[in-house]
From TrEMBL:
The lineage of its organism: Bacteria, Bacillati, Actinomycetota, Actinomycetes, Kitasatosporales. Transmembrane segments: none annotated. Pfam families: ADH_zinc_N_2. This is NADP-dependent oxidoreductase. Residues 3-246 form the Enoyl reductase (ER) domain. SUPFAM superfamilies: GroES-like, NAD(P)-binding Rossmann-fold domains. CDD domains: MDR_like_2. It comes from Streptomyces lunalinharesii.
Length: 250
């Protein structure tokens, strides 16, 4: 969510009424952010990027924190490494940018229509998953940020084939099944589950990157709050480029 601080509780020193903030409060608990007012611990928020309006700022926290914590905190991506991002959409377009900002060579899978966009965001290579199996086109990968999972076409298991010995698969949607763990061990690679968590400090860093022009956010479409059901249906189609945003007030 993104909005303006109305009131702070006792002892809060990092924010004050009137500050424009954004955040992903409480996750994985329910934040009840489909509302005019949201309450949460102050350090689960950060000042929103000055370069963004509230619509674009609201599109950042969940997707960008997922990408940041996977790429930076979990995989510790380094300059010169090869990073494969599967399904470069909402979370993926941030993962591409963060990995590239760190100096990695980034490979992204997406339909052909999205390739020019991903190249603009910093992808060195793109693979059209509708015509090419990514394991036939990518090798020697240090890190795979898998945003699909094994429920769809065994994407996590197939990702093991592209990793160099000792490489890491960050399995985000569905975690690590016993079969996937066994496959990773047999292939001599590593695999880890992942779940994003609130992180105001990381959001502050991401805001600086956005304001400096190093990271962009893509908003695919906005919906008024009363059309939340339509927005969810659109998101569940799996065909959205960027993020969907609900506008609560005019």
């Amino acid at each position: 969510m993104s909005g303006v601080v109305e009131e702070v509780g006792f002892g809060v020193t990092t924010l004050k009424a009137g500050d424009e903030v954004y955040g992903m409060p409480w996750f994985p608990r329910v934040a009840n952010a489909y509302a005019e007012y949201v309450t949460a611990p102050a350090r689960q928020f950060a000042r929103k990027p000055a370069a963004l309006d509230h619509v674009h700022a609201a599109a950042v926290p969940l997707a960008a924190l997922t990408a940041w914590q996977a790429v930076v905190d979990t995989a510790h991506v380094q300059a010169g490494q090869r990073v494969l991002v599967t399904a470069a959409g909402g979370v993926g377009h941030f993962a591409v940018q963060f990995a590239r900002h760190l100096g990695a060579d980034v490979i992204a899978t997406a339909s052909a229509a999205r390739h020019p966009w991903l190249k603009e965001l910093g992808a060195n290579e793109t693979i059209d998953y509708t015509t090419t199996r990514f394991e036939d086109a990518a090798t020697g990968v240090d890190v795979v940020i898998d945003l699909v999972g094994d429920d769809h076409d065994q994407t996590s298991t197939r990702s093991l084939k592209v990793l160099r010995p000792g490489g890491l698969l960050v399995a985000i949607p569905a975690g690590v099944s016993p079969e996937l763990a066994q496959g990773a061990e047999a292939a001599g690679v590593r695999v880890t589950p992942f779940l994003v968590e609130p992180d105001g400090a990381a959001l502050a860093t991401i805001a600086h990157l956005i304001d400096a022009g190093h990271v962009a956010v893509e908003v695919a479409e906005t919906f008024p709050l009363e059309q939340a059901g339509t927005a969810h249906a659109r998101g569940e189609s799996g065909r959205t480029r960027g993020k969907l945003v609900l506008t609560v007030t005019n």
